[in-house]
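name: query_chain
kind: protein
chains: 1
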Amino acid sequence: MAIFTEKTKILELNNKIICTEEKEILNYLLCEKIASTIYKLQTAHFIPAKIGYKTGLASLNFRKPDAKYFYASQEYFPFRSPYDTFAFLKNFFLFLDLEPYHKLIDDLLRLISFHIFTGLRDLIDCNLLFQKEIDGFSLAPLYDFDFSFENGILEKYHYKSSICIFDLPSEDLIKLLEFYPNFRKYLLFMLEIDMGSFLEEIKEENDLEIGELYQNYYLKQDKIKKGFHKKLTFINPFCFL
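structure:
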């Protein structure tokens, strides 16, 4: 049975071997499960591994050898407003059939909702990857979950990534909810998350021991964020504390 007791630093990233601190290992395993199960987002698959005396995570390379990839950048995401960003992205889709464009926007809305729940803070350009397609591009599997579950959401949440920037609540967010009705549904996905069950599944699937201190930490984060969301009646008018 693997027992995470050592404090090790990241040795190598980019879908090869990851060695990291105890809590970061759980962050990666939890984020992979929550992203794929609740938000239906593709992620790299992480497996607990030992490198010498160090305990960490291994991940296979998900990049297709014949595909072209690029990181989020100002060329594709030049605006702070999510509404303006999504409108601008249409310029990269040339064909009349906009299904690939709508699929990208839908994935980005799911991604933002996932980011809000996990509190990811390391959302710089090189941590968000996209794959070029025949028409436009698509969101590549997620692979970087550093600095997750670190901040509780209180009266206002400041979302900042290479995709867009906005406060929750804010006029930008309300405008986005009006124009993209599915976004409301994706934001409410967090209320479906059973953090206790996910922690138990991770323990069983990976043959791990998770101490009470860590379990209580993640359960507290889960409770804080769900409590904040329940107060946002403009997102869920039927959910009150």
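note: The longest strand covers residues 46-51.
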